[in-house]
Amino acid sequence: MISRTFPTRSGCARSEAAAIVPPPPGESGPKGRRRGRERPVAGSGPARAVCGALALVLGLAGCAVARLPALGPAPPAAVHIRAVQAIPDWSLAGRIGLRVENRAWSGSLHWTQRGARYRIRFVGPLGQGALDLQGGPGGVELRTSNGARYRAASAAVLLERHLGWRLPVRALAYWVRGVPEPGRAYRLRLGPDGRIRGLTQAGWTLAIAGYRRVDRFELPTKIEARRGTTRVRLAVGRWRVLPPGDGASHDLSD
């Protein structure tokens, strides 16, 4: 029995065992020495082809190491901010935690933005305490799980009046994307890799813990916003940049 080793394109090696079978009587090799014929031990024909293909696949699987795509070099902060601020239609889904003084609330968050129109859905643990906030140029409406409806000119006024939450929803539409709201002064904090790791605006301080590439943009995966005794934590599990629309012909159900 002998073993032969053959290199493959993947850099791994495959081996094939063969047996030396004595030749028929009277047959000899060069210079009168008896010569043997190699005959594979394994089967031949289709069965052998299947076994060979399987061995090749297993060998490649053993050599390859799957890796998640890494983020490339960070674009200049000003370029990144302008590009992300200009995204008109997007949606996210994740988990949110809100603490106001000694009161706390947590649940899932679904936010769909279509230009100036938006829909934000909060759902508490086990589906309890659902809230549906929809707004646009014509005003804002809040619907609760018990069927109540409230309207106001702005989301910030509506949430504070009925829930006691002091949240700047207009600014949050930019902050959840990791960029400042246009038209207001701000300060940035950049990480060693050049990406935005925090910003301060309108009395709020934001910390950004991670990014994910979505189409040609980099969008945050973990954000924390603080102001006084109010703290908001957001962990985004899914980002989507939605197809362009006119803001009126598309619904807000994502």
Task: Please tell me about this protein's structure.
The chain has helices at 46-63, 77-85, 155-163, 169-175; strands at residues 2-7, 13-21, 37-40, 89-100, 103-114, 117-123, 131-136, 139-144, 149-152, 187-190, 196-201, 204-214, 217-227, 230-241. With 254 residues, the chain is of the alpha+beta class. The chain has two domains: 2-63, no CATH class; 77-241, Lipoprotein localisation LolA/LolB/LppX (outer membrane lipoprotein receptor (LolB), chain A, Clam). The strands form two sheets. It has an eleven-stranded antiparallel sheet with strand order 9-8-7-6-5-4-14-13-12-11-10. Strands 1-2-3 form a three-stranded antiparallel sheet. The protein is globular and about 50 Å long. It starts with a strand and ends in a 13-residue tail after the last strand. The model is unreliable at 1-24, 26-68 and 246-250 (pLDDT under 50).
Could you name the key traits of this structure?
single chain, 254 residues, alpha+beta, outer membrane lipoprotein receptor (LolB), chain A, eleven-stranded antiparallel β-sheet, three-stranded antiparallel β-sheet, 4 helices, 17% helix, disordered N terminus
Average pLDDT over all residues: 79
**Uncertain runs:** 1-24, 26-68, 246-250
User: How do the strands line up in the largest sheet?
Assistant: 9-8-7-6-5-4-14-13-12-11-10
Q: How many H/I helical runs?
A: 4
The percent range for strand residues is 35-45%
CATH topology of the largest domain: outer membrane lipoprotein receptor (LolB), chain A
Give the CATH superfamily of the largest domain.
Lipoprotein localisation LolA/LolB/LppX
Look at the structure and give the CATH class of the largest domain.
Answer: Mainly Beta
Summed up, the domain count is 2
Give the SSE string. Answer: EEEHHEEEEEEHHEEEEE
Share of residues in helices: 10-25%
What is the gyration radius calculated from CA atoms? 32 Å
Distance between the termini: 66 Å
Broad shape: globular
Number of strands: 14
**Based on the structure given, which CATH architecture of the largest domain is correct?**
Clam
Structural class: alpha+beta
Q: Outline the biggest β-sheet.
A: 11 strands, antiparallel
